[in-house]
């Protein structure tokens, strides 16, 4: 059902928890324990929501800051940080928090890469997340590529899949980013530190395609 309707966040959340245990969520937790910032995140257990982040304050940050990039992405996509489901099916308390942290940081991954929430963008981001985190749900979500239009599938395999594998494998573990402490930092500087290159702007590509289709339609209607 998650593949048929990738906008059912509750089903995707359940799939993520059911497939993360017993091994993969422990691997991600151990990656945090092996990193000083990851250990601090596990100790403090911060949460990301509109109650812990001041959205108006983020909008007032410099244009190329991490916080501004994040809130601009939220505004552009019409997304709220309060939509992430609570973890229900992971018994280990620490591992449950790791999954919750991954879930609540997802929109920061979107902002960092610039990928939109359209199905094509979500599949590309899930490919990146799988290469970086090895959470099975992110890999399984890539099966949704079968539901894309032919041109979108070709673009995924020729452009976004290679980008996702290259950047997901070589970049640092993104679960260890303490986003709340990086909000005023230059977003390009953070990308360089993590080893992440932005992919081609998918929204701009889709916009150009729509404009080209509209132009060709008007030409046919005028007899050209």
From TrEMBL:
Catalytic activity: a 4-hydroxy-3-methoxy-5-(all-trans-polyprenyl)benzoate + H(+) = a 2-methoxy-6-(all-trans-polyprenyl)phenol + CO2
Membrane topology: Peripheral membrane protein
Keywords: Lyase, Membrane, Metal-binding, Mitochondrion, Mitochondrion inner membrane, Ubiquinone biosynthesis, Zinc
GO molecular function, one term: zinc ion binding
Pathway it works in: Cofactor biosynthesis; ubiquinone biosynthesis
Cofactor(s) recorded in Swiss-Prot or TrEMBL: Zn(2+)
Any Gene Ontology CC annotation: extrinsic component of mitochondrial inner membrane
Subcellular location: Mitochondrion inner membrane
HAMAP family: Coq4
Family the entry assigns: Belongs to the COQ4 family.
Physiological role: Lyase that catalyzes the C1-decarboxylation of 4-hydroxy-3-methoxy-5-(all-trans-polyprenyl)benzoic acid into 2-methoxy-6-(all-trans-polyprenyl)phenol during ubiquinone biosynthesis.
PANTHER family, sorted: UBIQUINONE BIOSYNTHESIS PROTEIN, UBIQUINONE BIOSYNTHESIS PROTEIN COQ4 HOMOLOG, MITOCHONDRIAL
Protein name: 4-hydroxy-3-methoxy-5-polyprenylbenzoate decarboxylase
């Amino acid at each position: 059902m998650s593949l048929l309707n990738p906008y059912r966040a509750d089903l995707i959340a359940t799939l993520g928890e059911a497939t993360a245990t017993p091994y993969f969520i422990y691997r991600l937790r151990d990656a945090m324990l092996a990193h000083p910032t990851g250990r601090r995140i596990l100790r403090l257990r911060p949460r990301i929501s509109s109650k812990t982040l001041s959205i108006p304050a983020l909008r007032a940050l410099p244009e190329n800051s991490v916080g501004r990039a994040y809130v601009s992405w939220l505004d552009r996509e019409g997304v709220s940080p309060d939509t992430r489901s609570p973890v229900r099916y992971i018994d280990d308390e620490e591992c449950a928090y790791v999954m919750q942290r991954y879930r609540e940081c997802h929109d920061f991954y979107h902002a960092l890469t610039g990928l939109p929430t359209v199905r094509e963008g979500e599949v590309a981001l899930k490919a990146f997340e799988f290469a970086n985190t090895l959470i099975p749900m992110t890999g399984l979500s890539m099966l949704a590529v079968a539901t894309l239009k032919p041109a979108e599938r070709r673009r995924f395999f020729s452009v976004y899949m290679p980008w996702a594998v290259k950047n997901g494998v070589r970049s640092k573990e993104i679960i260890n980013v303490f986003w709340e402490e990086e909000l005023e930092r230059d977003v390009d500087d953070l990308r360089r530190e993590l080893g992440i290159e932005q992919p081609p702007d998918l929204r701009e590509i889709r916009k150009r395609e729509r404009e080209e289709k509209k132009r060709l339609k008007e030409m046919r209607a005028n007899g050209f």
